[in-house]
Amino acid sequence: MKIIRAKNYEDMSRKAANLISAQVILKPDSVLGLATGSTPIGIYQQLAEWYKKGDIDFSEVTTVNLDEYYGLTPQHHQSYHYFMQHEFFDHVNLSPEHTFLPDGMEQDHEKECTRYTALIYALGGIDLQLLGLGHNGHIGFNEPSDYFSTDVHLVNLTESTIHANQRFFASADDVPRQAYTMGIRTIFLANRILLAVSGKDKADIVRTAFLGKVTPTIPASILQLHPDVWIIGDEDALSEIPKGAVV
Ligand code: F6R
Q1: What is the separation of C-alpha 180 from the centre of its chain, rounded to a whole number of angstroms?
Q2: Which atom of ligand 1 is nearest to the CA of 131?
Q3: N or C: less crowded end of the chain, CB within 10 Å?
Q4: 81 tagged catalytic
Q5: Which structural domain, as residue segments, surrounds residue 9?
């Protein structure tokens, strides 16, 4: 696991965008696993800026997103479809046929989980998976549990996640209670994982997840076992990681 220290949010975004950009430049038909939330917004802006300057070309890239709320239409302003469209897809030359998210409106859970899992495997797996980190150690919407999940599944969101995400909704009552998410195995099979993290409020969970025990009660801790993980965090998020820590 490599831990890269960035000065601040902008620096974190630029460093993370550099890794994604290198992936796409070296392998133009890469499959990128993407995340939503506040953390990656700066990364998407930086990538869009480089695209506009002609430094990066997404025409052959395929993207698969980690998760989507259950019951929100793609047009709903808090859906992850909407987020991706407005924060990233609208600003680069990704082909719409090459961008995938779980279908939050599919009521047949088993059908949707099987479809999205099969789609990822049919693409040949993920070259680089971008992740954020939840305050409770979740990655995607894999919440703390007594086992590690496998493939795409429907989860019940925890109170902590509902509370954290209510800032995007009118009230906590409006936050969907369930979501489709890639499982831990789906994420773990990515060739390379890039976890971006920012802010003092994440410092404790960064230390617990990456210096503590590997346990499904802290889902992100499993990343300690992956052969190619890059944690890119700003000073605040990495403030509890001793300089020079070997992880
Ligand atoms: C988003 C996702 C979540 C977020 C995490 C951190 O697709 O899967 O795991 O990455 O909740 O969210 P932010 O970046 O808003 O702190």
Answers
A1: 13
A2: 10
A3: C
A4: no
A5: 2-245
**What CATH number is attached to the domain comprising 103?**
3.40.50.1360
Q: Is the C-beta atom of 149 inside 6 A of ligand 1? A: no
Q: Does 138 participate in catalysis according to the annotation?
A: yes
Catalytic residue among 136, 142, 153, 165: 136
List, for residues 46-88, the tens digit of each pLDDT value. 999 999 999 999 999 999 999 999 999 999 999 999 999 999 9
66 touches ligand 1 (CB under 6 Å): yes
Residue 246 clears pLDDT 60, i.e. is over it: no
CA dist., res. 79 & res. 67, Å (int): 10
Domain count, the chain: 1
> What is the model's pTM?
0.97
Active site residue 146: no
Q: 77-90 as b/e, with b when 16 or more CB fall inside 10 Å?
A: ebbbbbbbbebbbe
Please report the atom of ligand 1 found closest to the CA of residue 80.
7
Task: Provide, rounded to the nearest whole percent, the portion of the chain with pLDDT above 90.
Answer: 93
